[in-house]
Amino acid sequence: MIRRLGLSLAAALLAGTAAQAQDMAITNARLVIGDGTAPIDGGTVVVRAGKVVAAGAGVAVPPGVKVVDAGGKWVTPGLVLAITDLGLVDVGAVDASNDSGAAKSPFNAALDISAAINPAAQPIAVARANGVTRAFVAPLGTDAIFGGQGAVIDLGSDPRPITAARAFQYVEMGEAGARLAGGSRSSTYSVLRNALDEAREIALAPTGPRRDDVLLTRRDAAALVPVVTGRQTLLVHAERAADIRAILSLKTDFPALKLGIVGAAEGWLASADLAAAGVPVFADPLNDLPDQFETLGATQSNMGRMAAAGVRVAVGKLDGNSPTLAQYGGNLVALTRVPRAIGLTWDKAFAAISSGPAEALGLGDRIGSLRAGRAGDVVIWSGDPLEVTSGVVKVFIDGVEQPLQTHQSRLRDRYLTPQEGSLPKAYDW
Amino acid sequence: MTSVRPDRLGAFVALSLAIALAPAGARDKKDKDENAAASAARDFDKNPFPSTYRPYPGHTTLITGATVFDGTGKRIDNGVVLLRDGKVAGVGGALADLDVPADAVRIDGRGKFVTPGVIDAHSHLGVYPSPAVDSHSDGNEATAPATPQVWAEHSVWPQDPGFARALANGGVTSLQILPGSANLVGGRSVTLKNVYARTPQGMKFPGAPYSMKMACGENPKRVYGGKGQLPSTRMGNMAANRAMWIKAKEYRAKREAGKLETRDIAMETLAGVLDGEILVQNHCYRADEMALVLDMAKEAGYKVAAFHHAVEAYKIGDLLKANDVCSAIWADWWGFKMESYDAVPENAGILYKAGACVVIHSDDKNGIQRLNQEAAKAQGSAARAGIAISDEEVVRWFTLNPAKAIGVEKLTGSLEPGKMGDMVLWNGNPLSSYSRPEKVWVDGALLFDAMDSKRRPVADFELGQVGEGDVK
């Protein structure tokens, strides 16, 4: 009886959170589905039980649902921020608040960052206020070539941020990987191949004895079993075209690998190989400097060229301290107006920050667009979302309207007039 | 050559007195030697690495039918701009009475926008160039907390590929290169024309004053505290600064009295600040620290030209306006270090509303390619907070205001007759994500043209490399 009561309480609690996801229809929208199709004027999106049930022109509003009239404003899926340390860090330079790396950990591939996500961290609130609703969180500050297992999170203002724990393994190759693996790229490949071999051995004999010359802890080797068996995506950070080709060739010996390339500043020089292998790429579209010897070919036309060659591209692993993901999409559009540059159309540029990352990680059926069945992550914008002057009006995650208040917005409110009034500023809250 | 010697008369008087009061003979020789030293310490060449920049030849060019943001806060629809002899020769409406020679290059600017050349008041191009390898790390002389003796121009690598990106993607025509912020005093800045040259002197902006870089807050105390020396705290920062200014004042007094025996290039920079010849560019994030620096500047007798980064400037917009100090800021960089935790995207808007000088800066080889977009972002955030600011005012933030902050506002930064022909023709409104420079002129010379694949610079480093001459 007590047991049953406990269960029903838990059920009630779960139901309670679901109930916050009010069934709703946003009407009169300039509606962006986010899958690369063109915006639809006069569109409607219907969200029930936290999921999109219909979106488009001529979609009927079911009786009894809350109606939000967008007044002709842009309505889009929430943005997906791919390959970020969001939720792992409060302040990057404050070491104690930064969980993006673990220099002295006895483990690496086994690290599961989902346990470290703080959904109440200000960077999450700020990203949410900028229209981001999901993020692929990766251990970017890794001190071994294997950073550990990244997670897909939602940015909702609630205690349950995890959409998918252990969604991918993150590995550092190229220049950085070479330093971590002992000093050279050849060492990186030996370390990586050895690790995958050890994982394969564990997969074949999960409880059996291991050979006496293993380098990985059992826990790390076991964590790579889903990678070597193709059940977990291996996201590889590499920039140079030669590195990308070398990584693609791993499939010869490890055919089950499900790869994604992160960075890929010279991806356009390996685009035929990437397209043939069907391997997606997460890239920073504004990376255009030969900042390292592995990025000599960097150009803003990288993503456009890769897309034109048939590579699945998504925006990810952005450099810089600005929280405005949408600006990267806007710049991809800008390139279409520059002679000889190659960018993406508005529709494809938007997809590169919504459905693109979701599909690259095999989550396109769950998040990233407003097609039926996807999470009810919807943003209403003050203007064209890819324009730098536009901002967010409303954000819904899983159908729940989100607070847009942040540390920043509270400071703005306090200091809109800098001078003190009849009391110190500290009383103005 | 701008070797200014305001104290030459003083030296002569001191010498005459010494001769009059001294007995003849040996003492006479000694006094002569001393005064020769004193004279060398005072009458030094203040410009030993003079600019050799010369404007490249340009055609007389007339743009018609464009929307012109002139940098002073004016907007001219269907405007015309005339460049002649490297200068802005005329700006006006469609019917402006301009004396246009028959052989002028005429550009149809309909649907396009014209602004002054973009100016970045805070760049480390050249001193932290690409590729960012250790061998290229030349921006912080982090071996002593104050290094006023170092000059950024002695670190600038004029082959930094970043200059090309700033020109082609950002429309940047002038930029101030600053030393880094590891030190309380990082050294002298150098202002450059964004025109590749074989030497740093060949890029130096003729007639631009020097600035001296200072830094508040976390960086100096972290770098030197980590070495177990002063400063390890913010109060240590201030103590070290004040002691330095006291010494500089003593140096200056000795110099005035003709008692200096040897030159001291560190003190020459500090004295130059006290003389008002060298501007102060002060890296400072927090409002409390900026307020303290303003009082310290009064105590020492100098003026701060601009606070750089200034993420909390919005908290003291009134104070900054009263002190006529510019705030050189990012639009929305936030939270990467503790002293940036209170950054708000409305910083520029609130400062503007308070009547204070707003400068959008980059401090970044990527950000310098989009100062126009950063300004637009700040404009959008301000608008959503109820502060409406016109496009033509926002354009000032990356043209005339940074020119003022670095002391070249009489020469460039706006499209006014007689000023340098530094100009950008944009393929759309520069305050849009979708717009890029179509053509960029520096001193009337067309140095970037998106319509001409060869009219873009390629630095030495990129020759023969993959992607040489690519659109980037």
From TrEMBL, chain A:
Domain Amidohydrolase-related, residue spans: 280-399
Keyword Signal listed: yes
The keyword Hydrolase appears for this protein: yes
Extent of the signal sequence: 1-21
Pfam families according to UniProt: Amidohydro_1
Record key words, sorted: Hydrolase, Signal
Phylogenetic lineage: Bacteria, Pseudomonadati, Pseudomonadota, Alphaproteobacteria, Sphingomonadales
GO molecular-function terms, A-Z: hydrolase activity, acting on carbon-nitrogen (but not peptide) bonds
PANTHER family recorded: ALPHA-D-RIBOSE 1-METHYLPHOSPHONATE 5-TRIPHOSPHATE DIPHOSPHATASE
Identification of the protein by name: Imidazolonepropionase-like amidohydrolase
Automatic annotation (TrEMBL), chain B:
Entries under Pfam families matching the protein: Amidohydro_1
Residues in the signal sequence: 1-26
Keyword Signal: yes
Keywords: Hydrolase, Signal
Gene Ontology molecular function: hydrolase activity, acting on carbon-nitrogen (but not peptide) bonds
Gene3D superfamilies referenced in this protein's UniProt entry, alphabetically: Metal-dependent hydrolases (3.20.20.140)
Location of region: Disordered: 30-51
Stretches assigned to the Amidohydrolase-related domain: 351-442
InterPro entries attached to this UniProt entry: Amidohydro-rel, Metal-dep_hydrolase_composite, Metal_Hydrolase, Metallo-dep_Hydrolase
Name assigned to this protein: Imidazolonepropionase-like amidohydrolase
